Amino acid sequence: MAYLSTDKVEHHFHDVVIIGAGGAGLRCALQLADANCRVAVVSKVLPTRSHTVAAQGGMNAALGNVSSDHWHWHMYDTVKGSDYLGDQDAIEYMCRAAPRMVRELEHQGVPFSRLDNGTIYQRPFGGQSREFGEGGQASRTCAAADRTGHAILHTMYQQNLRAGTHFYDEFFALDLMMDDNGCQGVMAWDIAEGRYHLFQAKAVILATGGAGRIFQMTTNAHICTGDGGALVLDAGLPVEDMEFFQFHPTGIAGVGPLITEAVRGEGGYLLNGEGERFMERYAPTAKDLASRDVVSRAIAVEIREGRGCGPNKDHILLKLDHLGAELIMKRLPNIHELALRFADVDCTKEPIPVLPTAHYTMGGVPTNRFGEVVYADGDEKERVMESLYAIGEAACASVHGANRLGGNSLLEIIVFGRACGDQVLKHLGEKQYHPKLDPDCWKSGVARVERWLSGAPEQDDSVRISGIRDEMERIMQEHCSVYRNEAVMAEGVEHLERTAASLSSASIKDRGRVFNTELVEALELENLMGLARAAASGALARTESRGAHARDDYPERDDEQWMKHTLASIGENGVKLDYKPVRTVPMSVDSFPPKKRVY
Amino acid sequence: MTIRLSGVGIVSDMIHLQIYRYDPEKGGEPTMQSFEVPLTKPGMKLLDALNHIKWNLDGTLTYRRSCGEGVCGSDGMNINGVNGLACITPIAGLKQPIKIRPLPSMGVIRDLVVDMEHFFDQYRSIRPWLQSETPVPEHERLQTPEDRAEIDGSYECVLCGCCTTSCPSWWWNGDRFLGPAALLQADRWIRDSRDEMAGERLDQLEDAFKLYRCHQIMNCMECCPKDLNPTKAIDHIKRTLLARKS
Ligand SMILES: Cc1cc2nc3c(=O)[nH]c(=O)nc-3n(C[C@H](O)[C@H](O)[C@H](O)COP(=O)(O)OP(=O)(O)OC[C@H]3O[C@@H](n4cnc5c(N)ncnc54)[C@H](O)[C@@H]3O)c2cc1C
Ligand code: SF4
Ligand code: SF4
Ligand code: FES
Prior knowledge:
The complex is a heterodimer.
Chain A: E1 9-19, H1 23-33, E2 39-43, E3 59-60, H2 71-81, H3 88-108, E4 122-123, E5 141-142, H4 148-163, E6 166-169, E7 171-179, E8 182-190, E9 195-206, H5 227-234, E10 239-240, E11 245-252, H6 262-265, E12 269-271, H7 279-282, H8 292-304, E13 316-319, H9 325-331, H10 333-343, E14 352-361, E15 365-366, E16 372-377, E17 380-390, E18 395-396, H11 408-430, H12 443-454, E19 463-464, H13 465-479, E20 483-484, H14 486-502, E21 506-507, H15 517-541, E22 550-551, H16 559-562, E23 564-571, E24 574-581
Parallel strand pairs in A: 1-2, 1-9, 2-6, 9-17, 15-18, 19-21, 20-22
Antiparallel strand pairs in A: 3-5, 4-5, 7-8, 8-9, 10-23, 11-14, 12-13, 13-14, 16-17, 23-24
Chain B: E1 3-4, E2 11-12, E3 14-21, E4 31-38, H1 46-57, E5 76-79, E6 82-85, E7 98-101, E8 108-110, E9 113-114, H2 117-125, H3 145-149, H4 168-173, H5 179-191, H6 198-205, H7 219-223, H8 230-245
């Protein structure tokens, strides 16, 4: 046992500790473990339970296996898709690296589907074009049937087993240990044993995934609670662009599970209550494969104007039976299974009822394109926080800006997982020793848990965490949805602040230490609440429409005032907002200046 | 509100469950506790009922869950005597009271949460990663759609443990018999045309215990929530070994 170990806290030394065992965390771990670093991966669930496993449609790369393609076209589509809020240096880096990253995944064993000539199968996805929007639809999304996330996550886990990465499974990260020299490690709670662990490291990487659980209806797993962003907020640092939350056009109506965009990529389309293929009106060229924000808004308008489907006219139909059972079972077997299980629909015969559903967290922990966490220090808007990194959906690099393109997220986790690994290796070259720790550094992490375990026991009239969580989800769903406006959001923000305050008087029933999942839910709720507050306040302040942030009262994009990133932090007096410019200058090519987005 | 449950013929707005409870900190023998949960929607799943209990009735009820849609493999449990994933098991069609126990033959940590360590150790022991000595090409390795189709039905495994913990041979010899899940994955790599270590993989499996304790009892394939067929994979390994000998 190391020097700060006590009977309550075990002290570990690693070169690097990565919080999160999804695709991003595992790709990064692999880069470091293969370079002989002592890497610890701390994850609140077993690695293969991470939400990357649920990704369906695929991963973008301009391989050109189906029709000619170029990374520069991919970059153009991504910048346009981001509604010009994406940082173009990071986007160039990602799109350029993509073909190499996909091939590397294949070499590592990912079971991609194949074309007849033996190369990786690629399908069309939304927002993809050739020749900078002039050459028609591209086929850029590399797929393993409709289970691409499963294929990638399991392969990454397998490779880390080979490489000898240290796994700390079912450990919950509680608190970052920060001092004047940056981040020194993290405090974690061993869920199964009910014990504290202090991980001291020369670099700490947040790879904690998205925060979809701030909404009531979401495609995200129960574990997608934005913990990385919350750790950063707790450390007094800002999160970026949280008001940009992607609503996927096709979640199964009333339940949530995702029906991948690949359905439309393979030739499926949307129908309204009048049997009309309405996307032709909203996006004459791309139609059903317009960008996700465009399609989700179109669906919301159709329903609002009384052209929904079903007895209550409250959803839209996704038709794919015309593709034929054989193609569906070959390319979309998982969709067939999900539709049967969750919508009671055999999609080889009938359409699937769908609705826009909260799906992807474009915002997150601000980073540069090396995965280094940055923060605003007076006039210096991108100061690097030493030894702290963030990657994947938890981070905001920002490659997705105001709206992510489907297939770009699996790409992001692999590209930046690897890039961050390389950056950390450089950092380790300069940082030979673990600095001395403040002997009290473990205390706030412990206090976070003990507040729940040793407070007054739950009474019948106690405030339950499930009640507060329901309230938060409902507020976000009703006040910060696909379409937003001043009055509705202002009310939402006020209500949310009150709900957040009620957390301090909440309690849980379970006082056990061994596998206390009620405790975990309480900690997750604290995390969600911080991010929901940042999202709602950021949305209220942004008086324009851009990407996923669509306002009835400010229907236009306002580049003059708002082509900038939001930085939200939480202090004594609530949410504080600051802004920083978009990095419009790419690494080597010309910048794509903002244009009106037409699909 | 009354919803008719198809299949079981009961008309009821309450679901009756009996759930295995065990708290190591309190000690004592495990018990079965009864709960009643309202049926809230027609397609309601067993996980919805467990969540209802946890969030409204008893916060101490302990189980694992993540994706809620049958892809992460977290919530394998024994439901009316059959292993399955709670999140994709419809309430309709289950005989009531629904009896829920942890996966059989596993060490119980608390309530429905079992220790998966040995199960994963066995998975790790088959060296579940692509092994190849040929230098990688500049582009992707080529694989025909037919060769790729060879691993359909095995790569999809979510490592939930439902099959292995339903296998009587594994209950008796689980320390040495690898069990259906690990063997299905061994077969996945033997079949993958890109892997070059099929011979070594077969050598490693040619053992009276690791492989040959499977007596084709088929419990494994009957309960796999992803409709995979470990029995067939085990048979394929055995046949490949035989073919190698002759
Ligand atoms: C249904 C669905 C389908 C999708 N399909 C696609 C697609 O086809 N193409 C595409 O590009 N993208 C897709 N996406 C998006 C993409 O899958 C995700 O953005 C991406 O997988 C996120 O990976 P990640 O590694 O950042 O996080 P995750 O995979 O979510 O992993 C997060 C990790 O952090 C750990 N963690 C979190 N908090 C803590 C804590 N406090 N302590 C310890 N550990 C913690 C978790 O245990 C987990 O291991 C899809 C998303 C969903 C929801
Ligand atoms: S078929 Fe073999 S592995 Fe499957 S349950 Fe029977 S004995 Fe076990
Ligand atoms: S084969 Fe089926 S039952 Fe067995 S672990 Fe895999 S998914 Fe679960
Ligand atoms: S919760 Fe993921 S499989 Fe059931």
